Amino acid sequence: MVTRVKPYAESAASYIPERPTLEKVRAASKGCKACWLWTLGTQTVFGEGPRQADVMFIGEQPGDQEDKAGRPFVGPAGKLLDRALDEAGIDRTTVYVTNAVKHFKWERTGRSTRRIHKKPNDAEIRACRPWLDAEIALVRPRVIVTLGATASQALLGKQFRVTKDRGKAIASPLAEAIFATVHPSAVLRAPDPAARGLAEKELVADLTQVARHLQAQARQSAPRGARGIATRTERRATKKTAGDRSGSREQPMAARSRRSG
Ligand code: URA
Questions:
Q1: Which residues fall within 8 angstroms of residue 258, CB to CB, at 6 or more apart?
Q2: Contact 59 CB / ligand 1 (< 6 Å)
């Protein structure tokens, strides 16, 4: 009888270290061969950001530039995300960014030397899921924001439609709320400048809902005077009235009531 050996582990579960910490998990992810995508990508692109970030953004998979840099959202989509976060009053340095799939899946078409992004399939998303689950369990974000259909459906189910339920707080056992919005790459792919402008505005509007949610929750649980994420308008107002209080430091993120228990 021939014993068939599976070419890949098919799940990253066996790679997750015992007594995991974010650093241990990140290090372990470097050697992941849970699916065949490790043969395509330059390296594993694990998430990054503060270990106790209030918000976790989840994209689909690293792109060409992320694959080379080994860091998520550093290419054109990342730049757009940075801008949209700034517009919504969310400080990018305070959020954790990661992807549903940690290797770049790509193909070449014709004679082009360009590596063209290819959508990961269900088996690849499933194989990679233990890394994402570990990140969520260790960071324990108050809010998760899924960018695009791949991440949204991975967390909210195959039936979920970003177009229908974007920008709303969705109940989940994974966090206080999940917000789904479009992927910044979809904004970049808009057919003309007017459509792109509109798509970017809508992305900012969704992220503003995230900022508002965090603020509202922070107001409920934080002592008077503690600050959550400020919307752009509020930051402007704060600057105007700050006067000679310029030495005082604002709390950039909301109080961590979820973690205090
Ligand atoms: N697109 C993603 O989904 N993730 C990245 O890190 C970059 C582009």
A1: 140, 142, 176
A2: yes
pLDDT block averages, 10 residues each, the chain of length 261 = 68 96 98 94 97 97 97 98 98 97 93 92 96 98 98 98 98 97 98 98 98 87 51 43 34 38 33
Q: Ligand 1 pocket, 99 CB below 6 A?
A: yes
Question: What pLDDT was estimated at residue 140?
Answer: 98
Would you say the CB of residue 63 lies under 6 angstroms from ligand 1? yes
Spatial contact of 199 and 187, defined as CB atoms under 8 Å apart: yes
Which residue of 61, 67, 80 sits with most ligand 1 atoms within 8 Å of its CB, as the best mutation to test the pocket? Answer: 61
Superfamily of the domain at 12-236:
Uracil-DNA glycosylase-like domain (3.40.470.10)
Of 125, 172, 123, 175, the C-alpha closest to 148 is 125
For the chain, what are the domain ranges? 12-236
Atom of ligand 1 nearest to the CA of 100: 3
The pTM for the full model equals 0.84
